[in-house]
Amino acid sequence: MSSRSIRIFAPATVANVGPGFDVLGLALEGIGDEIAMSLTSEQGIKIAIPESDLPTDPKVNVAGVAIQALLDDLNSSQGVDMTIYKKVLPGSGLGSSASSSAGAVFAVNELLGRPFSKQELVKFAMAGEAASSGKAHADNVAPSLLGGFTLVRSYDPLDVISLAYPDDLIVVVVHPQIEVKTSDSKKILRKDVPLETAIAQWGNLAGLVSGLASSDHSLISRSLQDLIVEPVRSMLIPAFDQLKIAAKAGEALGCSISGSGPSVFALCNTMEQASQIGNDFQQIYDDLAIEQQVHISKINTEGAQIIKG
Ligand code: HSE
């Protein structure tokens, strides 16, 4: 057994990215959870989460559930000790639970001598997502593990694709300081979609993937529209229409809800444009006396990584 300890970083993510509900996601730079982990000679998973009231029971905590899924697959009763430094706020729409689940399985896999590839870790991290939101979606955990833009081509069997995308993309995210639980914002969605709406949505999703691959900014912009989920969930987000108008006025490539909200993202292709839109987003919430945080970053290319050890 290794007595090595490591500290890892797993990035926050923007899931859905407009038309790709539950299938598309991207990783952010400069924001993500950190986890310090070591293997122990005692059985069981021990979790500490400083300055947080998240559950530390490994049967309930998303990172504990994800690690257990990995150990079960190996038929292992290995003990694990970890401290999760939460930097991604729960209920922000920036893949908080995914960052912990992805980071945890990445760290334990490293300590065990890498029995799985990063791609193979996605299914274990998804078990953590299921514990958190009631549904094992992969659109946050895949980019948190793999970096870049990812597409879940299929859930059964699981088929996750890393997409090509232009390297000039900048993401602006504004997080109004209200909490929206993924499980709640999933419940309000309609189960049926009219055929015409579905046709428009999959046209946009294919257009977005194609535009990313060919660095066609105009095609990305025309395609970054969500006709199914955004119209329903935007009702939970203060001043959503004003944010969209500001992003459009700033000529962002697109703007939509990050994951299940309440964060909203705009995709840009210059830092100057991103800064202006970030300021405009901030002003909109300042005018309404709603506390917010703005994060501007490039797309994280590496995904989960070791930062120490
Ligand atoms: N695709 C998921 C949803 C992501 O929109 O509910 C949750 O962050």
Q: Can you walk through the features of this model?
A:
The chain has two domains: 5-162, Ribosomal Protein S5, domain 2 (2-Layer Sandwich), CATH 3.30.230; 170-298, GHMP kinase, C-terminal domain (Alpha-Beta Plaits). Helix content is 37%, strand content 26%. It contains ten helices and eleven strands. Helix 1 runs parallel beside helix 2, helix 1 (62-73) crosses helix 3 (118-133) and helix 6 (195-213) packs antiparallel against helix 7. The two termini are 16 Å apart. The mean pLDDT is 95. L-homoserine (HSE) is lined by residues 15-16, 21-22, 93, 95, 137, 139-140, 182, 186, 259-260. L-homoserine binds next to helix 5.
What is the makeup of the main sheet?
A: 7 strands, mixed
- Based on CA atoms alone, the radius of gyration comes out at 19 Å
Q: Enumerate the distinct ligands.
A: L-homoserine
Mean pLDDT: 95
In percent terms, what proportion of residues is strand? Answer: 25-35%
CATH 2nd-level architecture of the largest domain = 2-Layer Sandwich
**In CATH's first tier, which class of the largest domain applies?**
Alpha Beta
The coarse silhouette is: globular
DSSP E strands, number: 11
CATH topology of the largest domain: Ribosomal Protein S5, domain 2
Secondary structural class: alpha+beta
Question: What topology emerges from the helices and strands here?
Answer:
Layout: E1 5-15, E2 24-40, E3 45-48, H1 62-73, E4 79-85, H2 96-111, H3 118-133, H4 141-146, E5 149-155, E6 158-163, E7 170-176, H5 182-187, H6 195-213, H7 217-223, H8 230-233, H9 240-249, E8 254-257, E9 264-268, H10 271-287, E10 292-298, E11 305-308
Parallel strand pairs: 3-4
Antiparallel strand pairs: 1-2, 1-11, 2-4, 2-5, 5-6, 7-9, 7-10, 8-9
Helix pairs in contact: 1-2, 1-3, 2-3, 6-7, 9-10
The structure holds L-homoserine.
